[in-house]
Specification:
Elements lengths: L9 H19 L4 E2 L1 H8 L3 H9 L11 E2 H12 L5 E6 L3 H7 L9 E8 L8 E2 L2 E5 L3 H8 L3 E4 L3 H13 L4 E4 L12 E4 L2 H28 L1
Parallel strand pairs: 3-4, 3-7, 4-6, 7-8, 8-9
Antiparallel strand pairs: 1-2, 5-6
Helix pairs in contact: 1-4, 2-3
Length: 224
């Protein structure tokens, strides 16, 4: 594919997984083609936005037919870099860490959690799925031996920066941070923070707007 040099905007990147979910459903149903309008309707988007997003992959649709489902899946997967399997480790094997470690859906995204680490003696040596929880003293050798470049942090906020610094000193280049804390990292390292509180705040505001709007409409109808 020729989309290696295309810079995909972050908003488009965030929508791509939703496109893939729908495309894989349609693929399983035997559908060969899909239109931007169908994708847009499924996700409550405008067709022009979908076409703009897909154009970033280098794929072109056929007039009155749409996009070839198989080709579009491959193209979006390639644009996201999910066609190259990546291995990662996780630090912090609490409830969230266990859930992430055992989530089978990552395989569809080209991600494999291959190591789990914690400093809690009661957890070291226990199993999380197919992984044996290891102590932090094993972290450096594991990263170097397995050439790991991605780490998932699910430790308490008070320990997050310390863990991040340690991981970076051992050669980690990408951090997926689930700890409720903003981390300071050097320019040579990429970090993505997943903030559950922020997600819930957005949900709360959307619900309030939705129900406030419905309430206003109902009051207006009653007055009429």
């Amino acid at each position: 594919m020729e989309n290696n040099k295309i810079q995909v905007p972050i908003p488009s990147v965030k929508r791509f997984p939703s496109y893939l979910r729908i495309l894989r459903q349609r693929q399983a149903e035997g559908m060969e083609y899909i239109s931007a309008t169908v994708l847009a309707d499924e996700l409550n988007l405008k067709p022009i936005q979908v076409r703009k997003d897909i154009s970033c992959t280098g794929i072109e649709g056929k007039p009155k037919v749409g996009f070839v489902v198989d080709e579009l899946i491959d193209s979006i997967t390639h644009a996201l870099g999910w066609d190259n399997s990546a291995e990662a480790l996780i630090v912090g094997v609490g409830n969230l860490g266990k859930a992430i470690s055992m989530y089978e859906g990552f395989a569809a995204y080209g991600l494999r959690i291959v190591g789990a680490f914690d400093n809690d003696e009661s957890k070291i040596g226990t199993m999380v799925g197919d992984l044996v929880v290891q102590g932090m003293d094993k972290l450096k050798v594991f990263i170097e031996t397995n050439k790991i470049s991605i780490a998932v942090i699910t430790v308490p906020a008070s320990k997050a920066q310390e863990v991040a610094d340690l991981l970076i000193s051992y050669g980690i280049k990408g951090i997926w941070n689930f700890a409720p804390k903003d981390l300071k990292i050097p320019s040579g390292v990429v970090m993505q923070r997943t903030d559950l509180a922020t997600s819930f705040a957005v949900l709360s505001v959307k619900m309030r707007k939705k129900f406030d709007s419905q309430s206003s409409t109902l009051e207006l109808e009653e007055e009429i």
